[in-house]
Amino acid sequence: MSLNAILRWLKPHEMVFFDLLEGSAENIYQAVVQFDREIRLADPGRWPELRRQMKEFEHAGDEFTHQIIDRLDKTFITPIEREDILALAHALDDVVDIFDAICERLVLYHIGAIHPSMLEISSLSVEGAHELSFLIKSLRNMSDTQEIRLHIRRVHVLENQADSVYHSALAELFNDPQNPVELLKWKEVFDLIEDATDRVELVAKVVGSTVMRNA
Predict the structure, then answer these.
(1) Could you read off the pLDDT of 164-214 as tens digits, one per residue?
(2) Which range of residues forms the domain containing residue 127?
(3) For a designed S-S bond to 117, which of 87, 125, 149, 169 qualifies (C-beta 3.0 to 4.6 A apart)?
(4) Into how many domains does the chain fold?
């Protein structure tokens, strides 16, 4: 039986998995946009509020994941493979967790001026989160696998660009280590935001493998 035939046969409440995954992806996009907007204001006095906002996004992401897991336990037939739904849920959840950790460091380490390279990686993260929204929505019918692969490739390109900025930023930090404490602070912050771009790419990869198994 084809995927479209299965989807027509499924009861509406079983299609809620797509709603929840899309909600989780949208939560990521809103979180990353908010993060990017706030750090561009370059006002350290706003970091505690940003941290509070990011914690709300993190809690929302957890709730989407919990609902997905709960429904998987109660649903016999799912619109795509159960393992794919679970992998997507966890991969999506991890993205917001990283941005929550970054905001925590901004507060704990009393980060002042934002490094230009961090702004550049943040901008790339916004683009990547936008791509994820498309990819997760594409799971509803998977009618154009070529278009899906193009967007997955776009996420991969964005992650490579972020890697290049990350390595250049580290080289700059270590080439002029006048303040070892500041160096260590920024090294950790850069490590985290680079990890965030890796997590975005992981979601795209999971979408790719999901499409291969279910289309």
Answers:
(1) 999 999 998 888 767 888 889 999 999 999 999 999 999 999 999 999 887
(2) 3-214
(3) 169
(4) 1
Q: What is the CA radius of gyration of the chain?
A: 19
Distance, CA of 98 to CA of 75 (rounded, Å): 30
pLDDT in tens, 69-86: 999 998 888 888 999 999
For residues 102 and 193, give the distance between their C-alpha atoms in angstroms, rounded to a whole number: 7
Nearest-angstrom CA–CA distance, 25 and 19: 10
Nearest residue to 87 via CA among 2, 202, 212, 190: 202
* Length of the chain (residues): 215
Check: pTM over 0.70? Answer yes or no: yes
Residue-wise pLDDT tens digits, 17-57: 999 999 999 999 999 999 999 999 989 999 999 999 999 99
Q: For residue 173, give the amino acid letter.
A: L
Measured CA to CA, the distance from residue 165 to residue 118 in angstroms comes to: 8
Q: How far is CA 131 from CA 74, 125, 142, 191, in A?
A: 31, 10, 15, 22
Count of C-beta atoms within a 10 Å radius of residue 147: 12
